[in-house]
Design brief:
201 residues; elongated; mainly alpha
């Protein structure tokens, strides 16, 4: 079975992947767990993220088509490749856009365990600025996951974000949540100081 069996769009996107990115997917497919264990030494970058995201979108779109063009074996293989591609992205990505794509995919599949894994990845791997971007998402689930992650961020991380004109309001909301939900005295003092500063202007 070749990529051409899945249709022209998938074949085109696959052909546009850099050889290193194609190798990343191929090694992940050969790994016993169906994940990306064989790719840990691969130099992953933003372009890999973009390429894999486009490839996953093409695979998922093809799988969602209501057509008899794919026989059950080909359809099963298509889903397996899509799941593997998503697993690679789940392990590697630090992009707000790709995170949103993966959350929406998990929602469509009602895969709540994967949403939990994504939430853990958000807390452990994503830069604070990307989490803030996700906290402003139009997607309710994405927004809540991001706000929960921010509410568990160290005070020092949130304090640094207060100097960012884009992320300051999001960081302040996270501090208020730390006060309300976790009773953080340090957060309370910082919020109080911010409110006093506001009163001066």
């Amino acid at each position: 079975m070749t990529v051409d069996d899945f249709g022209s769009r998938i074949a085109t996107v696959w052909s546009e992947l850099r050889p290193a990115t194609r190798g990343l997917v191929e090694r992940a497919l050969q790994s016993p767990a169906g994940g990306s264990q064989g790719s840990r030494n691969f130099q992953y970058d933003a372009r890999s993220d973009l390429e894999l995201s486009r490839f996953l979108a093409a695979l998922d779109d093809r799988a969602a088509e209501k057509t008899d063009a794919l026989d059950p074996e080909t359809g099963g293989k298509l889903k397996s490749i899509a799941d593997t591609c998503a697993a690679v992205l789940l392990e590697k990505t630090e992009s707000a856009e790709v995170f949103t794509q993966l959350v929406r995919r998990a929602q469509m599949q009602r895969d709540y365990r994967r949403i939990d894994i994504l939430a853990d990845a958000l807390t452990s791997r994503f830069p604070p600025s990307e989490i803030c971007e996700l906290a402003r998402s139009e997607d309710v689930v994405v927004r809540e996951l991001a706000n929960e992650a921010l509410a568990r961020c160290p005070i020092s991380v949130l304090a640094a974000l207060l100097n960012d004109p884009v992320d300051a309001d999001t960081a302040r909301a996270a501090l208020r949540r730390q006060v309300a939900e976790y009773g953080s005295e340090e957060a309370r003092e910082l919020v109080s100081a911010l409110d006093q500063t506001d009163d001066l202007y």
